[in-house]
Amino acid sequence: MKRRHFLHTLMMGSGLLLPVSPTIWAASSNTAVPSGKKVIVIMLRGAVDGLNVVVPYADRDYQQARPGIALKAPGQDNGVLDLDGYFGLHPALADLRSLWDEKKLAFVHASGSPDITRSHFDAQDYMESATPGKKNTPDGWLNRLLTSLPGSTTPTRAISIGATMPRILSGQAIATNIASGAAGTRANVLDQPKVGSAFSQLYENNSRYAKTYQEARSAHQEVMSAAMQNEQQIADGGAPLPNGFPDDSTRVATLMRNDPNIQLVFMALGGWDTHANQGAGTGQLANRLAPLGQGLANLSKRLGPLFDDTTIIVMSEFGRTVRQNGNGGTDHGHGNVMWLLGGKIAGGKVYGDWRGLARDQLYEGRDLAVSTDFRSVLMQVCEQHLALDDRQLQQVFPQLPSLHSRFNLYRNT
User: Fold this and answer.
1) What is the DSSP code string of 55-98?
2) Can you tell me the distance from the alpha carbon of 10 to that of 17, in angstroms, rounded to the nearest whole number?
3) Which residues have CB under 8 Å from 357's CB, separation 6+?
4) Residues with Cβ < 8 Å from 385, sequence gap 6 or more?
5) pLDDT recorded at residue 205
6) CATH of the domain at 99
7) Rounded distance, CA 126 to CA 138, Å?
8) How far apart are CA 226 and CA 13, in angstroms?
9) Which domain does 152 fall in, by range?
10) Residue 10 within a domain
11) Which UniProt keywords apply (predicted)?
12) pLDDT at 117 over 90
């Protein structure tokens, strides 16, 4: 088989995903103008225990259900950071306290998917497609959002940080995937003029691939340029930063400041499936939450003035059982907590229809019930932050939410 035919066959089988480097891939596009409003979605894969993130410490049922992993009251050693006299924030998230006090951080408790699955794979798929219970949805809601926004698409209007292009950004509109860590902004073999020219010639006469390849190359050059503008000034000759979310979040903020075309960003973090040895104020969960909080604080600071026009959403596929298990952990549950950060968020509040943790209020007698459909939160972000109309909202969210609590997540709207 000739090399040209082999490469074309490879791309046919991969859904028109073209490599621009070992760390950057671009999906083929149809064309759709960046506005000043930004959205960053952070997915906590593995089902984070929302009851030990935003803790109902004043609910007596909380302490009784978790004798070994319940967090202590405010003021005690490793106790929660009081939010409103009923809820408290896990102490490992202390870096976020100033955002709460500035009313730029809010939570929506007892939120999640109305689908009853306890499968990580299915639940994540439903949250990324925003069509709970429907497995054959061909695209992700962030990709549909991209096609609904006004104007024309650039290769970096929507970016994902991670190993592969995520479900949430799959679809017709172009999206760019960048590896996490410093490798995502390193030069690669295609940056060598002779190699880049050879690949350009390979695709230039193919009507199907030429545009996608050029968009992918443009995305890579745009990311490289945006990254180096800052790193060359503040790091030792552009030396890579250490791995981890705090560094990735700082890098994302740098890219967004240097490239005004970036409007939608997706990042995913794993390690939240705490079936054993979860811990309370310290331990496994605390060790996961600390860099998450640090990274979110970095992101809000490094974005600078852009933070006023940015909404950051943190979500997970489902919550965990109210009662701890015999291994000092928690099992797959249902309701959870969504986080929202941004300069225009009506923060300093825990939103949602909270019904407590008494057994008769729990889903199947074991889980926090979902009283706010996660899509109703996403729809409010799209409507009030991105100014989508009813027709556009229907395009992004083809199934209307079944559970909706009435609240306003934004100031001056």
Assistant:
1) E-TT-HHHHHH-TTTPPPPTTSTT--EESSSS-EE-GGGGGGHH
2) 9
3) 56, 59, 61, 62, 65, 322, 368
4) 37, 39, 311, 342, 344, 410
5) 63
6) 3.40.720
7) 12
8) 32
9) 38-182+244-396
10) no
11) Signal
12) yes
Which residue intervals of 181-303 are DSSP H helices? 193-203, 210-234, 245-258, 284-302
Residue 201 is assigned to a structural domain of this protein: no
**158 closest CA partner among 137, 208, 11, 148:** 148
Residue 55 lies in a domain: yes
Is 176 contained in some domain?
A: yes
Model pLDDT for residues 334-347, shown as the tens digit of each residue: 999 999 999 999 99
Instruction: For residue 275, give both structure tokens.
Output: 């079936």
What percentage of the chain has pLDDT greater than the value 70? 75
Task: Report how far apart, in Å, the C-alpha atoms of 289 and of each of 42, 54, 105, 282 are.
Answer: 13, 12, 16, 10
The size of the chain, in residues, is: 413
pLDDT tens profile 209-264: 555 545 555 544 444 444 434 433 332 222 222 238 999 999 999 999 999 999 99
Contact 160, 267 (CB under 8 A): yes
Domain total of the chain: 1
Name the average pLDDT for the chain. Answer: 82
- pTM across the whole model: 0.80
Token pair recorded at residue 303: 């974005």
Euclidean distance between CA atoms 45 and 42, whole angstroms: 9
